[in-house]
Structure formats: structure tokens, C-alpha cells
Write a structure and sequence with these properties.
Blueprint (H helix, E strand, L loop, with lengths): L2 H26 L4 H14 L1 H21 L10 H19 L5 H24 L7 E2 L6 E2 L2 E2 L2 H20 L6 H26 L2 E2 L11 H20 L2 H10 L5 H16 L3 H16 L5 H8 L1
Antiparallel strand pairs: 1-4, 2-3
Helix pairs in contact: 2-4, 3-4, 3-10, 4-6, 5-6, 5-8, 6-7, 6-8, 7-8, 7-10, 7-11, 10-11
């Protein structure tokens, strides 16, 4: 056989192998939405410890290292590294909510996204309602002084608070007034953890404030945003559907586990004791809700 014949034969074999692999991938690829959702459920469930514990631990070390000057440029506070880590930690929430998403939910989530950009743009320009502040770390592409990825940071935060309250309240959550009275302080409490840690890292700066560098007006602004979020989420999701999914999906609040580890650890490092204690209280709430327990670690050891 000539060299040309051998090359042609090798090329044919390689093409056939590639074709076989593509065919195998097509056969394994989900054909329906239900199959796709089941695949995503399995991926998250099999990697819970890595997503909910390892990623926030690595993130906390990397962010503190960046703030303390241990991480050299250009890796310190690298925006794409930060965004990738956030997206991974958000994945249990996104995958958990996915089966309940329909056109109505997409529409109302779009409304909440628009509100997120609007209120942040107003805040950056005028200082209302959160107080005067400025971003001091690159968080990726900006639009009108606001990070394009802002909904990735904001919406899951209020969604986690909303879901945790639904889970802990049980039948009492049927009342919209009970939901508002419970979710609003929980959202504000999450920001009690978030903002002091972010200010300590240098993510953004309020120019000073009595609560670990954060002005009290910031929390009044979060009350407004929490009200908008609760009203919007109530309209986005059918009550029975979201509660059934929350009951059956054990990893749906793993993003809040990541929040406790990441921001609790950052606040401990910088000596923000009250925010760290509030983060620990969220951990207790997750334990009571049977969402942050030894099973998460047992599954990892297996």
C-alpha cells in the first residue's frame, strides 16, 4: 500500500471514529425538556459538595487574597473568574427552579431584571435609595455605570430568601402579608451579611457609614427592593408548583449554603462579627429546613 493510500485510509478511519462519537453524543443528548431537566438535576446532585462547599471556600480565599495583595495582577479580582464562580454557585438554584419556569415566569423575571438595572442606575447616579456609592472593583462589562451581570448577583439573593421563607413557613406562607413580613427582613438580613463583606473587600464603597462602612439608608433601599421582589416572584410562579419543587429538590437552596460559607468566611476574616453571626444564623435556618446537613458531606465522601 502506498503512503497516499495509507493516509487516505487513516483519514477515513478518523472520520468514521469522529462520526461514531458524534452519533453517540446525539443518542445521549436529551430529546425533551423533561429529559434535559433530569440531566441537569443529576449533574448538580452528583456535584453538590463541589458546588456548594468547595467553590465558595476557594472563592473566599481568592477574594481575601486579592484584597490583601496576596494574589498578583492580573489575577486579583479577575472579573471573569468572579463571574464564573458566581454562576457555578448559582447553578443549583437555577436548575432547581427550571421545571417551574413558563412564559409567565419568564415575563415577570424580565420585569425584575429591568427593575434591577433601573434602581441600580438611579442609585449610582443619585445616591437614592441605597446611599452614595461607587464600584471600585471591575465586575465585568458595565452599562451606564452598572455591571451587565448585576441580575446574576441580585435576583438569586432575593430568590433564595423567598424560597427559604416558603420552606420554613409551610402553610403560613399562603398569606401574602405573612410572606412580605417574613421575606423582607430576610432579604435585608442577607444584605447585612453581603455589603459589609463587599465593602471590606473593596468591591464598592459608600464613602463611610455607621455599620461596617455601610450607611443605614442602604438597608432602607433594600426594604424597597425586597417588596418589589416578593410581589414580582409571587406573580412569576404558581404557588403549588414552586412549593412542590422546593419540597422535592434537596439541592434547591445550595446557593444559600454557598452564600453562608463565602460571605460568612469573608466577614470573619475582616472582623465583621455581627455580619458573620447573621451568616451563621442563616446556616442554622438551612439546618432547620433540612438543607444544610451531613447528607451533603456524606454524598461527597461516597
Amino acid at each position: 500500500m502506498s503512503d497516499g493510500d495509507r493516509a487516505g485510509s487513516a483519514g477515513t478511519t478518523a472520520a468514521a471514529t469522529t462520526g461514531s462519537r458524534l452519533d453517540a453524543l446525539r443518542e445521549r443528548a436529551p430529546d425533551t425538556r423533561n429529559e434535559a431537566e433530569a440531566l441537569l438535576d443529576r449533574l448538580v446532585r452528583e456535584n453538590r459538595f463541589t458546588i456548594a462547599v468547595v467553590f465558595p471556600l476557594v472563592g473566599a480565599i481568592a477574594l481575601v487574597g486579592s484584597a490583601e495583595g496576596w494574589v498578583p495582577e492580573p489575577f486579583a479580582f479577575h472579573p471573569w473568574f468572579v463571574l464564573f464562580g458566581v454562576i457555578v454557585m448559582r447553578s443549583p438554584l437555577v436548575v432547581g427552579v427550571l421545571p417551574t419556569i413558563d412564559r409567565r415566569a419568564l415575563g415577570w423575571i424580565g420585569v425584575l431584571m429591568a427593575y434591577t438595572y433601573l434602581i441600580e442606575s438611579v442609585g449610582v447616579a443619585t445616591g437614592w435609595p441605597y446611599g452614595e456609592f461607587a464600584y471600585t472593583v471591575d465586575l465585568g462589562p458595565m452599562l451606564g455605570g452598572v455591571p451587565v451581570a448585576l441580575p446574576v448577583f441580585f435576583i438569586p439573593l432575593v430568590m433564595n430568601a423567598y424560597l427559604l421563607c416558603l420552606l420554613l413557613l409551610g402553610p403560613r406562607a399562603d398569606s401574602v402579608w405573612v410572606r412580605l413580613a417574613t421575606v423582607i427582613p430576610v432579604v435585608v438580613a442577607m444584605d447585612v451579611v453581603l455589603d459589609p463583606g463587599a465593602v471590606s473587600l473593596g468591591f464598592w464603597n459608600f464613602g463611610g457609614g455607621p455599620f461596617y462602612g455601610v450607611p443605614l439608608s442602604n438597608y432602607a433601599g433594600w426594604v424597597l427592593s425586597a417588596i418589589v421582589a416578593v410581589v414580582t416572584l409571587d406573580r412569576a410562579f404558581a404557588a403549588v408548583g414552586i412549593r412542590d419543587r422546593l419540597r422535592d429538590c434537596e439541592f434547591m437552596l445550595d446557593d444559600m449554603v454557598s452564600f453562608v460559607i463565602l460571605w460568612g468566611g469573608i466577614n470573619v476574616w475582616f472582623g465583621n462579627l455581627l455580619p458573620a453571626a447573621v451568616a451563621a444564623a442563616f446556616g442554622v435556618g438551612l439546618v432547620r429546613a433540612d438543607r444544610f446537613d451531613t447528607r451533603l458531606f456524606t454524598e461527597w465522601r461516597r
